[in-house]
Amino acid sequence: SETLSINKGHKLTVKRGNIVEEDVDAIVNAANSRLDHGAGVAGALSKASNGELQRVSNAYIRNYGQLQVGEAAVTSAGGKLKCKRVIHAVGPIAHEVKSDLACSQFIYQAITNSLLEAEKMKAASISFPALSTGIYAVKKSLAADAIFQAILKFHYTSSKVLTDIRIVILDEDTYSVFAQHLLAIK
Ligand code: AR6
Fold first, then answer.
1. Is the ipTM of this complex over 0.85?
2. How many helices (H) and strands (E) does the chain have?
3. Given ligand 1 and candidates 1, 24, 41, which is best to mutate, with the most ligand atoms within 8 Å of its CB?
4. What are the pLDDT digits (tens) for 83-130?
5. 157-163 own/partner pairs: CB under 8 Å, 24+ apart
C-alpha cells in the first residue's frame, strides 16, 4: 500500500484489499440512486452484512426517497460488518454523463458529501472504494484525480477528527492507477 502523510498524524492510504473487511468507523459504499445493492462493492457489502444492509437501505428509500448522483446517505451497517455505519455514495455512470468535467464534478461531490457525513458522525477512520470505476465505467485516472482532489480539499478546510482516510481497491489494475496518482501528489 501507499500512504501519504497529509500533516501531523493524518494519513491518506491507497491499499489493495476487500473493502468489506475494513475495520474502520465508516465504510463508503459505491451505491446507486435506489440503494439497490446488486453487484460490485455494494453487492459484497450487502452479502457480508447478511442482507441487513439491503433491509436498512430499503427503509431509508421508503422514508426519504431516492438519491441524486453526487449525494451520500448514511445507514447503519447492520451488525455483521466491522464498521457501525455505511455511507452510500452515488457516483456518475460514464455513458449517462455529457463530459469528463461533469463526471469528475459528480465524483468530487459524492466524495465531499461522504466526508461531510463522516465528520457529522465524528468518524476517525473511513474507507472509500474507487467510486464509479467498476460497473459505472468511469476512466480510472479521471476518478482517481477527482477523489484525491476532494479528499485533500476537505482535509485542508475541515477535518480534525478524521485522521485515517483509506482508498481500498480489490483489483490490481485500478489499484496501480490510484497508487501512481498518490505517488504523483507526494
Ligand atoms: N472491495 C474493494 N474494491 C472492490 C470490491 C471490493 N469488494 N468489489 C469491486 N471493487 P463498483 P461503481 C472495485 O462496480 O462503478 C453496483 O451494482 C471495482 O473493481 O462496485 O460505482 C451498485 O449497486 C472498481 O474498481 O462501483 C451500483 O449499481 C470499484 O471497486 C453500481 O454497481 C468500484 O466498482 C456502482 O458502480
1. yes
2. 5, 7
3. 41
4. 999 999 999 999 999 999 999 999 999 999 999 999 999 999 999 999
5. 158/115, 158/116, 158/119, 159/10, 159/115, 159/119, 161/119, 161/122, 161/123, 161/124, 162/115, 162/118, 162/119, 162/123, 162/124, 162/125, 162/126, 163/9, 163/10, 163/11, 163/124, 163/125
Please indicate whether residue 19, judged by its CB atom, sits closer than 6 Å to ligand 1. Answer: yes
pLDDT digits (tens, 9 = 90+) for 3-39: 988 876 789 999 999 999 999 999 999 999 999 999 9
Ligand 1 near 132 CB (within 6 A) = yes
Q: How far is the CA of 167 from the centre of ligand 1 (A)?
A: 12
Whether ligand 1 lies within 6 angstroms of the CB of 92 is answered as no
- Per cent of the chain over pLDDT 70 is 99
- pTM to 2 decimal places: 0.97
Q: Whose CA is nearest to atom 4 of ligand 1?
A: 170
**Residue having the nearest C-alpha atom to atom 18 of ligand 1:** 134
Q: Is the CB of 45 under 6 A from ligand 1?
A: no
